[in-house]
Amino acid sequence: MTKILAFTGMPFSGKSEAVKIAKELGIPVVRMGDMVWEETKRQGKKLNDKNVGEVANSMREKYGKNVGAKRTVERIKSFGEMNCIVIDGIRNSEEIDTFKKELGKDFVLIAVAASTQVRQKRAIARGREDDSKNLDDIKERDRRELGWGLGTVIASADILVPNEGTIDEFKKNMKKLLDKL
Length: 181
Hints:
Elements: E1 3-8, H1 15-24, E2 29-31, H2 33-42, H3 49-63, H4 67-78, E3 84-88, H5 93-103, E4 107-113, H6 116-126, H7 135-147, H8 150-155, E5 159-162, H9 167-180
Parallel strand pairs: 1-3, 1-4, 2-3, 4-5
Helix pairs in contact: 1-9, 2-3, 4-5
C-alpha cells in the first residue's frame, strides 16, 4: 500500500516549499493545480490568478468538487507501485474522500499554516505566473479557496506545520517531519 502524504494550506502558506523538500528527499509529487493550469492553457487563456480561478470554479461546477482528485488519481495510478507519494493542493473534503477511496486508507493530511500578514508579504514577493499581485486580489483568492472548502480541510488536517519563521527553519522542520513519516 502506498503512503499518501497530502499538503494543504492557504495560498502562500508554504506548500510549494514543502513540495520542494519532498522532491529533494526523492518522494514523487503530484500537484493538483497542474490540471487546472493545463485546462487554462487548453482554453487559450493566459495563466494568471483570475483565469486560473475561473477555470477551477468552472471545472468544479461542471465535473464536481472532486474533479481535481479524480484526475490526480488517474495520474498516480499510471505511476505503478511506489512506497510514498505527495499530493499538493487539497482544497476540499470531497477530494480527501476520493483519495482515500481510490488510493487506500494510508493517507496523512498535512496543513502548512502561516498568518495572513506573512502570506500577503510572500504573495507580493513570490511572483509566480498565476499569483495575485495586489492585496485585494490576494484577499479575493483567499475567499474563493475558502469557498471551495479549504478552511474545513485545514481544520481536519492530521498534522499542522506552522510556517511563520525563516525558510531555513521551515525546511528543517519539514525535512524532520517527512523523514519521520
